[in-house]
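Batch job 17 of 40 flagged for manual review because the log was empty.
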Amino acid sequence: MDWTRIESSSYWIMFVAAFLAFAMWESVRPKRDFRRTEQRWLKHGAMLVICTVISVSIWRVGPVALAFGVRGNRYGLLNQAWMPTAVRFVLAILVLDFVKYLIHRVHHSVFLLWRVHQVHHSDPEFDVSTGLRVHPIEVTISQGVYLLAVAALAPPVMAVLTAELLSAFQSFFSHANASLPGWIERPLRLVLVTPDMHRTHHSVEIQEQYKNLGDIFPWWDRLCGTYLETPAAGDEGVVTGLKGCEGDTVLGVRSMLAQPFRKEAAQAADVSATAASA
């Protein structure tokens, strides 16, 4: 069985379907009105292409294909004969999501990594395309750590594929410029990171950027003390983006690629690291 082909086709089908579905949702019931949607989407799409090419060129293997390759590793933490298959499956999804939470948290805590992660937060607006706005250095580092986790765990192949599909779905759902009615939002955020919850994380307030770091599930934020129910300005009043990164200059592909290396990025990283440790 060609797991590389299965992984690639399944992931991109979910990726495109989720993007289109949530793009239509936010166009029908937008949380806020934006003026630069077309320009941002084109630039963010270009960043996606760059990140994909670089990441694939460096790692040359995806998490699912790697899980298939290490399936016989008897030293894998989740590849123990005494462990029931269903337990291994559920644990794999949970642990891999926790790994992504930790990766995200470290990107907000470490000076140099935050300089790179700023590219994602510097989007002056917040919609489904913000999920595409990631610097290739961040993608390369995050993917490398994630692959190491897969190799160490030797999780079930189908569990890794499920985690990848859930993450692709959730990336666009949590960034959607839309919100759910309160009677749906409140119970749903007990099991999934919702748009309102993740929008708080994209607040211009530094202390709020260190909250709600989860990828798929919100439990890690609650367990690790990084959960924030409501931003200081309220769900309707929260301003998203990064202070000092306003205007059309932050929308250019060259600008996004160069942002981590600018002096102001270093200053913002220093301020954020200080706030995070406070």
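Reviewer: the log was empty due to a logging misconfiguration, but the result itself is present. Residues 123 and 241 are 5 Å apart (CA to CA). Unflagging and moving on to job 18.
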